[in-house]
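Minutes, project check-in
Item: structure for the 837-residue chain
Input as provided by the requester:
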Amino acid sequence: MKKRLIISAVTVIGGLVSTGVGQAESAHTTSVSKKALAPFLETHCIRCHGPKKQKGQVRFDKAEWVITNNDSAQRWQDVLDVLNGGDMPPEDEEQPSTEDLSAALDLLTGTLLTARNRLTDQGGEIAMRRLNRREYVNSIEAIFGFSLPEDWLPEDAEAELFDTVGSEQFFTSSDLEKYLEVGREIAARGFEWASRPRVEVSVSRSEAEERVTETLRENLADLDNKMRLKQAGASWQEMGFKDEGEMGIIFSQFKSRAGKPRLYLQYPLVDQGVYLAEIGNSTARVGINRNNGDPRASYRLRVRAGVNGVPPEIRKFLRVENNDGTLGVLKVQGTIDAPAILEFEAKSKIGQRAVNFSVRENRADIRVIDGYLNKLDKGGEWAAIWVDWVEVEGPFYESGRAFFETLLRPEEELDEKGRVKPMQWNGSNARGFIELFVREAFRRRSPEVTYVDALEQMFRDGIEEGQNFNQAMGEVMAVVLSSPGFLFIQEQSDHEGGRKELTDRELAIRLSYFLWSSPPDDELYDCAESGSLLKPDILSEQVERLLSDSRSDAFVQGFASQWAELKRFDAITVDESEYIRFNKGVRDSAYREVLEFFGVLVREDLPVSNLIDSDFVVINSVLGEHYGIEGASDLFEKVALPAESPRGGLLGQTAFLTTGSNGERSSPVIRGALVMEKLLHDPPPPPPPNVPELGSASKNPMTNRQMVEAHQKKAQCSSCHKKMDAIGFGLENFDTIGKWRDTETVGRREIPIETGGTIPGGGQFADLDGLKSVLMEQEEALAREMVESLLAYGLGRRIEFSDESAVDGLVGRLADDKFRVRSMIKEVVASDLFRSK
């Protein structure tokens, strides 16, 4: 039966995808006057962009003189942009006369305006798109009330823009089989947990020293006894070894094996707590496991700990972990004489039968005594943190009940033994169950009768094969959760060309997945059902409500992480034995900083120019130590910058600065390119093939600036590098991990950093503050970058040439209010582009 279902589902999905992602109609063509423009290009452009050279991979000897679609229009728009901006011809080439340049600009401007109007009439089409991993997980949680690990699901395609863009997604038969498998597991867990009552909050505590200290004493006594026997001339058999080889290994490592426990046991309070001293796993971390964790709930970890001695600030942090990895970082404020209690909260997931937490010192991943301490705290305490106990409290539930719980049991009633009363659904009313479940899964769209008939028959077949209600209905639910109605955001189109207004329901779904990455809630569905959501004032109220809800964190995480390309940050490998201050806690906190900073811009409706420079940061305690900023707590909070701080904006954040490196040293080239792309809406062209590496021009040690400037002298590199390299020079005071420096190590010398530069057409600057001032003059370019990115993320498609008039209108309306981010989101949602399909 399962094989038949898979084949049927593949056929249905294949049909929908092939009809839902159709190509737009051919646009009316617009001619570019070759007679009028070709002489200008021949005189000023062909030498660098013709048959002999193709700088920036552009050539005009093979230009297309007809605009037929958005791609061909964009190529001519790029020409207009570089001419308007004075970037071309280069300063060292013969410049056109004012009359010739004006004529070329007028011609291109008028031609492109005509092309834009024609292409806009055609309309940009939105491909039917699949829920990405984030959206699938959130959609399941909206229905069942529990979360599931993303790695259960098929991987998302590597998106060039955003994981919401339908044209960059794919779906295979193996994906369908995976979704069916996951759907069965979700259904089984849904029946399981909906049948369990919510339990009272309780506390479980672990006193790890009871196990750790006794084990260390026993092991040390055994090692000392073996050494005494050896000195007395005993054989390996008499000493208790399994063979002579084992004896040789143990005694060759005796100093370390016995020395570490001996040193540890000399500490005070070893019988009252555990020192995080890295003797294997027994003292490397302290943890607690609590069985039968409820995936519908969250749990609170508490740690009572104190600092041992007077270690440097960086050694006062605990890293909180579970099976998923690092959860957060906590700063230990107390001492071993007056310990402090620290707290951390996290939600459980299905697939995790136990709630587990552990804490360890947040340090570089290198050997402690031979590496970390010698470089950071030579002569300091071996163990910097003492942990008295750890405990877990919970479960803590959300106030409401999930849809599936209320579907199974509308009333949350228990019998006299405290058990959930049996559900009222059975074989006689199974069709009603199917109809209600499918409608919710399909985002309040009632299913076709024939579809329900097929699902009901599937249920009956399962019962006849000996399955019980939960098993048979679980198969039905798995098919529903892997069907197009659930997996795909479907917006019906009549394919007659041109844009059509979304229905209220379609707008509600697009809006909720834009701002929550999940389906609408009851209030938003009610607005859609009443027909009021298309009214501007109601739509604005709902946007405000959605952004004020904690579920909008999904928008901040989904949008900002991809816009800032934090995957590139994750991919940078930094040698922690060299950069000992760049540990796991710093890396994870730096990732979060970008998201939390953008979240403040949204919540407080701050100008988008704060991405260039701001008078505040949004950091936690570990980043406070990393940046040398006081007043940060373990939670990410907005902190005012001291007057002398170089931080502020994206330019001062470790994630951005480390992304602009190769993991070994900073890169003015990469940083400059990132600023051009993300803050100036001016991404540099891809490099030509066979570009020589930095540093290949000389065998002598050089500063970063010297290497880059030598690189600029190469003909194939100079034109593109002038602007982005100058920007990157202004950020050179930040090293690979975002720490401030005044000098750079070159060979055995420390050379002062030279930061000044000149941006072509953008002015001069002497230092970081000057660079920020120059960039702030181009905040409209940043606003356009953000508007187009928000539209692409929300619409699930690329923003094309034909959309530029609408984008112009959005940017223009936002200018008077300093391009505030929350207002920007509202304008995007209110736009014709967002409300049409």
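Outcome recorded: Residues 306 and 335 are 4 Å apart (CA to CA).
No further action items on this chain.
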